[in-house]
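Deliverable D4.2, example record:
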Amino acid sequence: MTNNKNIIKPPLTPPYQGGGQDIKTPLLTKEGLGVVSSADTWNFSDSNISYSNEIIKWINEEVVRQISAGNNEPDWMLELRLKALKIFREKEMPSFWPDLSKLNLDEIYYYAKPEGAWAKKSWDDVPEDIKKTFDRLGIPEAEKASLAWVGAQYDSEVVYHSLKQELVDAGVIFDDTSIAVNKYPELIKKYFAKSIPLADHKFAALHYAVWSWWTFLYVPKGVKISEPLQSYFRMNKKSWGQFEHTIIIIEDEADAHYIEWCSAPKYDEASLHAGWVEIYVGKNAKMRYSSVENWSLDTYNLNTKRAIVEENWYMEWVWGNMWSWVTMLYPCSVLLGDNSKTDMLGLAFANANQNQDIWSKVIHIWKNTSSNILSKSLSKWGWISTYRWLIDIKKSAIWAVSKIDCDALLLDNKSVSDTIPLINVWNSSSTVWHEASAGKISEEELFYLQSRWISEEEATAMIVNWFLSPIMKELPLEYASEMNVLIAMEFEGGF
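Output generated by the structure prediction step:
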């Protein structure tokens, strides 16, 4: 394990100078999965989009009231936003995160509502310019691939939702969080901001002051959804801040799998993503949350996710992170009931000018709880990958079991990989295993593959894919295929 973060540091200016690479990525089209240039898919923006609200930079009470009024929110939500704004102004920047000194919050747009972007139930009703964007990203095709539903968010607004009729008949609710505040006020008020407090840290307060839309998912007792639920959000505007809020409620004996995919174009100016995920899983229930985050090198990705788990239930996190300049991804499971369990499986790729900072947290509260954390990270061209974990086993969590395995692969002689564990065990009956390893690609393995007429680039990609396979096999097929191609393209042209 290397420990020289004080030697190799991120640049003092954003990494946009000099332009980006033209990486080929897969695109789901009507003809199937084709490979196209990122300049034509993820790394494009739409200049023809018009917005229905006055767009100003920086955050103040006027902007907060504009967001609340635009969503026709009840008084209690506006009061919560204004309280959060006050906390945001008073709190200092977090000291435990990577350097954020170059993130100028005065130069961020906090609310932009695309013209005509009220959530549609039919893809045909989505405004044409926005529809073209998501057509290029394959969103309607994903729905045709037998997914349970598809949702799409564009800047501050959800523009499309689709839920299969049999799920509607079973009592499943999938709606925009901003709409759900009015349609399901008792449920929203019961769960909103209960797992992640307003004062958790400065960016938590900022999120709650300016959050906009996204996913409210409710699965009734006993309903088991066999197909995955999918959503996609796109950040289009330059110097944009996106603050979507997801609430997922899985009642007793229910089962669901939710997938998120994210992207943003490269603008050569910093953007901010601070999305929140709150998950509540009932007794004897099961929930899997998968995410693939493919932000541009302009983006600060500050993402907090937390699940509250009751007895005999299972919560699984699966994630993959690439491309953003600075990523701080902090999923957490709170094992609140006896015999509850969580798995956390994640991969991160720190390429040139990137800092990936991942922190998995599990809090064991009741007896016979268990957690399993598996992390894989890649670092290339002298950049930084940090993996932190917090295991907190309370005195009441007798016979708890936790296993942590963190593996880092360094792809050159300059990159940095740090593992920072924090383990608190407050009883004598619990068991914790933890292991961290860091290494380079074996010259012997490369020589063996090259002796079989495999190029160095292909051999390197094969070894990396094998290293990541425990995570990749847990992703849905279309997402695993996409990640494989993205990673393979990283090795074009050597090191």
